[in-house]
Amino acid sequence: MAPETSKAMDPPRWLVKLVDAEGSRALEKAIHGDRLEPPEIAELIADTPFHALAAAADYYARRVKGGRGSFTVNIYLAYTNICITACSFCAFYKPPGKPGAFTRSPRELALAVKKAVEEHGVVEVHMVGGNNPELPFSYYEELISSIKEAAPKTVLKAFTAEEIWFIAKQTGQSTREVLERFQELGLDALSGGGIEILDESIQERIAPKKVPPEEYLRVHEEAHRIGLRSNVILMYGHIEDPIHVARHLYRVRMLEEKAPGFISLIPVRFNPGDTPLGKSRLYREKARLDGQYDLRIIAAARLALLGAVDNIVAYWVSMGDKLAQAALGHGANDVGGTFYKEAVISAARGGVGGGKSPRELAFMLSQAGWEPWVRDTFYNYLRRVEPPKLPWMA
Known about the structure:
Layout lengths: L12 H10 L2 H7 L6 H9 L3 H16 L2 E5 L1 E5 L27 H15 L3 E5 L8 H14 L4 E4 L2 H11 L3 H11 L3 E2 L9 H7 L6 H13 L3 E8 L5 H17 L3 E8 L6 H4 L1 H6 L4 H14 L11 H4 L1 H7 L6 E4 L6 H5 L9 H10 L3 E5 L5 E4 L10
Parallel strand pairs: 1-8, 1-9, 2-3, 3-4, 5-6, 6-7
Antiparallel strand pairs: 9-10
Helix pairs in contact: 1-4, 3-11, 3-14, 4-14, 5-6, 7-8, 7-10, 11-14
């Protein structure tokens, strides 16, 4: 079945009857392709009957993507963990001069990429770092050039909008100038991090030194207008309420309609671990820890972004395998990537990232009823993967 991408997709009769029986006005609008306002998206997350919400989200995920579930074979690189932004939810960063702080050389990272291509066949480099005031602009130029020289056919998805904003501020350039220079050197797409919730009241409480939501969106708009596509995350499960998630999804949709270019939305569950936010009384009072909340957010994201952003990622790195697999039946169509050597979320858990093999990810997809495919960064499907079988499946 070929993927369907049109904005207007008539729902099947069984879904209409199910939604009518539940009496959810927000869900009724969603299945008919109408744009949802923030209070209606919040209703999906907080109040809509779960079975009907899940059925609608899963139906449209499979219809939009033609039954193809996907992942990419990628390597995760952190070029520096030195950061002065001091986000309350982050266990990865180190202040300048502190034990454990590092900045890797462009040559070291280029060699790591070359080795990953040769040994694992990676098709994407996912690279991010901290806001390090010690790095000159020439460091970033050499970093991009070295990686692209080492692996010219591999997509370089790097830097968050937050990093672009910080680099511009540090070097006295505009964000547009930084984006254009990085694109000229070989940057192919922006990663999705750098923001948690596109809501000023939440951002001020958990990361007051970070790029403001409006500026974050402006950087993405500039990237889209020069032909650089991007991703966007949503970090949930901390001190937010459903309305804050709803505003985030609404603002993503509004930007996509204004300046198209988003590749995927990646909902990321906050891992408290050894973080100031995780230890706070506010987190203990506000955090929603039940798995149904995760699945409601996945489903609401699918329906709120229907016809705008086609790819909703079940991010196994933060959700864990089982919950990510469940998300594939609640509106998600993708499990992200192999993420060899993922480091940021692993740091909150006190461990070191290792990644997953393509066969492991294919197994997760197939067990959720998806046909597993390796894709590139831009969701061009490259090859179907035969998942491993359990003994009783032979």
